[in-house]
Design brief:
231 residues; alpha/beta; Nucleotidyltransferase, domain 5; five-stranded mixed β-sheet; 10 strands; 32% helix; globular; disordered C terminus
Length: 231
């Protein structure tokens, strides 16, 4: 079973085509140009795998939380490709994909995923390995770093993601065993998590694939901007 996985939740654009054993990956730091780079990268990964879009069994994307615009781009590209090829779509939470990346890179089995959410907040969640999958210990939240609290126990948990680079004191405040702020969600991690869900029939039609938002406010009102308010 082959899947195309996409992630645009950070300043990186990540694409992977794989079947669980083989992965053909493209990763680029693109800033705000995901809409320009994602399709060419997907075509390149498919070509390296020797596949056409119609030969895939599904498409997965990083559903968030993350960059508001980036998440919408990833969802839209996944929907458009899936609709045209009549493929099922799997939406994978980006913080869970970050935990998966931490397991592959660092061998951690309990992970606090933390991304810089800007506006003086972080996106955070906590996961514990459950076989090849993950059990949610703390659902994704958008909070000020000083108010982030983890469920007990979390001895031996590792911290992954650029939230720990944006707020260096956070790891100590959470009493984490180790931190790797360079880790980020990748398309390969999204694909690894999506494949068993696709096999289990959890894919949905393109029109039903939705982003995951945990923050309701993404901008200031006009009145707040005039008053000089800052988020």
């Amino acid at each position: 079973m082959w899947i195309l996985a996409l992630d645009s939740s950070t300043e990186w654009c990540s694409v992977a085509v794989g079947d669980g054993r083989r992965w053909y990956e493209r990763d680029e730091h693109v800033g705000q140009t995901h809409s320009e780079r994602m399709l060419p990268m997907a075509r390149a990964a498919l070509a390296e795998a020797g596949l056409e879009l119609a030969q895939l069994d599904g498409i997965a994307f990083g559903a968030g939380p993350g960059s508001f615009t980036g998440i919408r781009i990833g969802c839209g590209v996944a929907q458009g490709l899936a609709y045209g090829a009549d493929l099922a779509v799997v939406a994978v939470p980006t913080l869970e994909a970050l935990a998966q990346e931490a397991r592959r890179a660092r061998g951690w089995t309990t992970v606090v995923s933390c991304l810089d959410a800007r506006m003086r907040e972080v996106y955070a969640a906590m996961y514990a390995a459950d076989g090849d999958a993950w059990r949610v210990r703390m659902e994704p939240v958008a909070v000020a770093p000083a108010t982030l609290r983890l469920p007990a126990p979390h001895d031996g948990a590792g911290g992954a993601g650029n939230g720990f680079a944006a707020y260096p004191a956070l790891a100590g405040e959470l009493a984490l065993a180790s931190v790797d702020a360079t880790l980020r969600p990748t398309a390969r991690s999204i694909g690894e998590l999506a494949l068993p869900r696709l096999v289990a029939g959890e894919g949905v039609a393109a029109a039903l694939a939705l982003p995951l938002y945990v923050r309701h406010r993404v901008a200031l009102t006009t009145a707040e901007r005039v008053a000089g308010a800052r988020l």
